[in-house]
Automatic annotation (TrEMBL):
<dbReference type="GO" id="GO:0008483">
    <property type="term" value="F:transaminase activity"/>
</dbReference>
<dbReference type="InterPro" id="IPR015421">
    <property type="entry name" value="PyrdxlP-dep_Trfase_major"/>
</dbReference>
<dbReference type="InterPro" id="IPR015424">
    <property type="entry name" value="PyrdxlP-dep_Trfase"/>
</dbReference>
<keyword id="KW-0808">Transferase</keyword>
<comment type="similarity">
    <text>Belongs to the class-III pyridoxal-phosphate-dependent aminotransferase family.</text>
</comment>
<dbReference type="Pfam" id="PF00202">
    <property type="entry name" value="Aminotran_3"/>
</dbReference>
<keyword id="KW-0663">Pyridoxal phosphate</keyword>
<protein>
    <submittedName>
        <fullName>Aspartate aminotransferase family protein</fullName>
    </submittedName>
</protein>
<dbReference type="InterPro" id="IPR049704">
    <property type="entry name" value="Aminotrans_3_PPA_site"/>
</dbReference>
<keyword id="KW-0032">Aminotransferase</keyword>
<dbReference type="InterPro" id="IPR015422">
    <property type="entry name" value="PyrdxlP-dep_Trfase_small"/>
</dbReference>
<dbReference type="InterPro" id="IPR004637">
    <property type="entry name" value="Dat"/>
</dbReference>
<dbReference type="InterPro" id="IPR005814">
    <property type="entry name" value="Aminotrans_3"/>
</dbReference>
Length: 426
């Protein structure tokens, strides 16, 4: 161990000096030192299969060679590391790669806005632009939604505990039911149509509707493709912009590069972050239909917009993914995971499975509050990282790197089955 690496026993800098706001380290208490592929390693010699992947940031795994080589070459050549929104060769290469390998093959035409490096900042930009374009201030969002914790993004996030932390009013958002099984999907659309159309609904026509096609933090709820298509049509009939938040389930996580491809959508605004940075590097991107790009220069800015290293890594990731057929691999692995989780769920009829591609959830809500959290903790003890999600954290969520080999996927779900068996036996 390097001399300057604190031991687990002497990890007092965190308790002594780091804010109480830290969270993931409480669920996964270890001193992590290195990572490769789909495995994490700690200072004490333990290792884990990673079904967490930086909350969906590490779609290409930890330290992938095909990206690392490109980054090292760029750094050794004294490539620019910070440039605000100046024109750089790294940015030009990323834009050209993104257009050629993502947008053009799908017949999509968007302007690219590089926002501050968090997904929440890109959501803020999308909301601001929608309001600017339409001249209206309201936004419709969905029950179970998660869009970030800055004030604008938090206003369209549904979690009451998260909202309470704002310490101030969060306005201009109307929440409507998501098609998560609590109501028939057609009823949720009828609800929105009624509010849009009824001049006596008490709700103003909004600037936009913001939606996750798969609610990941919300508990792995997958919106039906026909529901999504009908939502887009409804928005267009009423002149309301449709914003798709693809921060966690985009970049091939749900199969296609965009999660909305299965529904044939062409949203007005699309938000990307997390895996778009390729290597875990911070980067966020707002895609804007050209006719909606009505910003004045500098209206939404930030010191760290356009991370140059993320441009390099992101372009390398797109090249590698399209050259190696990652999309087909995600679909194939998704079928493998679905079959495996169905067998795991058969261990107890109270369990339910939801997901697609490589975003899945094991719903433990019928086993009581706290069960999924105990299951996550037992998985960690056995050598697997998997976080909880959903209402009251009752869903165990699986986000393995998209590059995880079949044998490691199998080994990870072996550990889930073992951990589940341990808890069910008491």
């Amino acid at each position: 161990m390097p001399a300057d690496t604190p031991s687990t026993a002497a990890a007092s800098p965190f308790d002594a000096h780091e804010s109480a706001v830290r969270s993931y380290c409480r669920s996964f208490p270890a001193l992590f030192t290195r990572a490769k592929g789909s495995r994490l390693h700690a200072a004490d010699g333990r290792s884990w299969i990673d079904f967490f992947a930086g909350a969906g940031t590490l779609n290409y795994g930890h330290n992938p060679e095909f990206i690392k080589r490109r980054l090292v070459e760029y750094l050794e050549a004294d490539g620019i590391s910070h440039a605000l929104d100046l024109h750089t060769a790294a940015k030009a290469a990323f834009i050209e790669t993104f257009v050629a390998r993502v947008l053009a093959p799908r017949g999509l035409d968007y302007r690219l806005q590089f926002t501050g490096p968090t997904g929440a900042n890109a959501v803020e930009a999308a909301l601001k632009l929608a309001r600017r374009v339409t001249g209206r201030s309201g936004v419709f969002a969905f029950t179970g939604a998660y869009h970030g914790l800055s004030l604008g993004a938090l206003a369209v996030t549904a979690n009451r505990a998260k909202r309470a932390a704002a310490g101030t009013a969060l306005g201009d958002a109307t929440f409507v039911p998501y098609p998560d099984g609590r109501l028939p999907a057609e009823q949720t659309l009828a609800w929105i149509e009624r509010l849009f159309s009824d001049g006596h609904s008490g709700v103003e026509l909004p600037a936009a509707v913001i939606v996750e096609t798969v609610q990941a933090e919300g508990g792995i709820h997958v919106a039906p493709a026909d529901w999504l298509a009908a939502l887009q049509a409804l928005c267009r009939r009423h002149g309301v912009l449709l914003i798709v938040d693809d921060i966690q389930v985009g970049c091939w996580r749900s199969g296609g590069f965009f999660s909305f491809e299965r529904a044939g959508l062409a949203p007005d605004l699309v938000v990307l972050s997390k895996a778009i940075g390729g290597y875990g590097l911070p980067m966020s991107l707002l895609l804007i239909r050209p006719e909606l790009d009505r910003w004045a220069p500098g209206e939404h800015t930030g010191t760290f917009r356009g991370n140059q290293l993320a441009f390099v890594a992101g372009a390398a990731a797109l090249e590698h993914a399209t050259d190696t057929g990652l999309e087909a691999e995600v679909r194939r692995k998704g079928e493998r995971v679905a079959a495996r989780l169905a067998r795991i769920a058969a261990l107890d009829t109270r369990l339910a499975v939801r997901g697609l591609g490589l975003v899945w959830g094991l719903d433990c809500s019928a086993l009581g509050d706290g069960f999924a959290e105990r299951l996550s903790a037992r998985c960690f003890e056995l050598g697997l990282l998997a976080e909880t999600a959903g209402r009251r954290d009752t869903v165990l969520k699986f986000l393995p790197p998209l590059t995880t080999p079949d044998d490691e996927l199998d080994a990870g779900f072996d550990l889930v089955a073992r951990a589940l068996g341990d808890l069910l036996r008491g």
